[in-house]
């Protein structure tokens, strides 16, 4: 599993998003590699983590000794260092789209019909457009801090271009990954605004990211508000977002907010 994270023939994205190494975004089409986990059941004398992030096994130990025993508990995940660059540069951790906003079990209402769910293409497009509007509403909080960085705006544009049929899903998803990269070194409102744009770009791939765009936009509004006014600012942003919902998906999104509010930092209490 230590190869390129660009994936294989399996179209399913098991971490539902984009992974990127430095400034090079790549679709994450499979689970993070075995290097990203340290099994608590592995013998300390035979399994260790090197400075480069590679898994090291004692020469006399069988590699199988570093596999998990049935029922073992995972220790805290370690960052996957990704494939080694050919130019000799230090490797950087592979970072994925934040998964806090995604449920453990996928809601079939947000899975397209051709993949076994009930979501129509027309409603999928409406979800992408609504997510783009949510992200765009707070985009100035990023652009005022990083005026020379076009990546979040391009992610929003790609979400809309996907709806128009001008780009494919992979292009929209990759643009979302670029927006995530723009957020990496930032804090506060600018960071959340970039994440909102990245989530909007990812809706073409996984429709459930629509709530991620909305949630991060609310977090951006909260972070930008004067001291003591963040909660009011968040509620105001939440109500604005609901006013933009097309009637065809309104009940679907409102119910989704109710179900996922707790894993979305309770930002939809408005």
Describe the structure.
Mean pLDDT is 76; it is low at 1-85 and 90-99. α1 runs parallel beside α6. The protein has 3 domains: 1-35 and 80-96, no CATH class; 38-76, no CATH class; 108-264, no CATH class. The longest helix has 17 residues, at 121-137. The N and C termini lie far apart (44 Å). The strands form 2 sheets. The protein has a 3-stranded antiparallel β-sheet with strand order 2-1-5, covered by helices on one side. A two-stranded antiparallel sheet has the order 3-4. The relative contact order is 0.13. With 270 residues, it is mainly alpha-helical. The chain is built from 8 helices and 5 strands. The chain has helices at residues 121-137, 139-143, 151-163, 169-183, 188-202, 210-224, 230-243, 247-260; strands spanning 17-21, 24-28, 47-49, 55-57, 94-96.
Please give the alpha-carbon distance between the first and last residues: 44 Å
Unreliable runs = 1-85, 90-99
Q: Tell me the Rg in angstroms.
A: 20 Å
Q: How many helices does DSSP assign?
A: 8
Strand order of the largest sheet: 2-1-5
Which structural class do the helices and strands define? mainly alpha
Number of strands: 5
Overall pLDDT metric: 76
Q: How many structural domains?
A: 3
Quote the beta fraction. 5-15%
Helix content: 40-55%
Main β sheet profile: 3 strands, antiparallel
Which word captures the global form?
globular
């Amino acid at each position: 599993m230590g190869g390129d994270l660009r994936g294989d023939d399996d179209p399913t994205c098991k971490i539902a998003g984009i992974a990127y190494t430095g400034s090079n975004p790549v679709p994450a089409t499979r689970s993070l590699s075995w290097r990203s986990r340290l099994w608590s059941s592995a013998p300390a004398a035979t399994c260790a983590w090197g400075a480069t992030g590679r898994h090291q096994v004692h020469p006399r130990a069988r590699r199988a000794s570093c596999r998990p025993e049935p029922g073992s508990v995972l220790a805290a995940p370690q960052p996957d260092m990704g494939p080694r660059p050919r130019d000799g540069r230090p490797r950087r951790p592979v970072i994925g789209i934040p998964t806090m906003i995604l449920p453990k079990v996928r809601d079939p209402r947000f899975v397209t019909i051709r993949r076994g769910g009930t979501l129509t293409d027309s409603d999928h497009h409406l979800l992408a457009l609504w997510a783009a509007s949510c992200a765009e509403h707070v985009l100035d909080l990023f652009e005022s801090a990083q005026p020379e960085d076009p990546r979040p705006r391009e992610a929003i544009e790609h979400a809309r271009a996907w709806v128009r049929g001008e780009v494919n899903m992979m292009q929209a998803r990759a643009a979302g990954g670029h927006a995530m990269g723009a957020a990496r070194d930032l804090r506060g409102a600018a960071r959340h605004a970039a994440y909102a744009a990245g989530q909007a770009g990812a809706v073409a791939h996984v429709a459930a990211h629509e709530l991620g765009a909305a949630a991060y936009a609310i977090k951006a509004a909260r972070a930008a508000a004067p001291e003591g006014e963040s909660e009011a600012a968040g509620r105001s942003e939440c109500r604005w977002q609901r006013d933009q919902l097309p009637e065809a998906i309104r009940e679907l999104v409102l119910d989704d907010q109710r179900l996922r509010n707790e894993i979305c930092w309770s930002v939809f209490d408005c």
